[in-house]
Amino acid sequence: MLWLLDQCPPDYRAYAGWRRHPIALAWLAGRHIDGQVVAMRDAWREARVAIGPHVPAEALTEILGQIEAEGIRLLAASRSVRLLHEALQGKVFAPRL
């Protein structure tokens, strides 16, 4: 459950109901992370126009690389949260070879 809270804004820790009900926390964490994925995609599309003229070219390249890395991290977290949410709902996973 602490990992789920780590995926959310710090303020989410103040809500006792979400801590008492991990299935609700997993559902909310998934929605939050999915929103962040959308934000990173938007940032990737808009960065060149919005900040490109204001930073050196090498800085823009670095920033775009970091946006991409964060997007990849968020996609992995989204998949993990989704799987955890399914497991909390009782889904049984068959091992794969």
Question: What is the helix fraction of residues, given as a range?
Answer: over 70%
Q: Report on the biggest sheet.
A: none
User: Structural class of the secondary structure composition?
Assistant: mainly alpha
**Which percent band covers the strand fraction?**
under 5%
**pLDDT below 50 for ≥5 consecutive residues: which ranges?**
none
Using the CA coordinates, give the radius of gyration: 17 Å
Give the N-to-C terminal Cα separation. Answer: 28 Å
Number of helices: 4
* Topology pattern, helix = H, strand = E: HHHH
Number of E strands: 0
Q: What is the averaged pLDDT score?
A: 95
Shape: elongated
Total domains: 1
Describe this structure in words.
It is a single chain. The protein has helices at residues 2-6, 16-20, 22-50, 57-88. By secondary structure, it is mostly helical. The protein has one domain (2-88). Helix 3 runs antiparallel to helix 4 (57-88). The protein is elongated, with a radius of gyration of 17 Å. The two termini are 28 Å apart.
Short description:
This protein is an all-alpha fold and 97 residues long. Helices cover 73% and strands 0% of the residues. α3 runs antiparallel to α4.
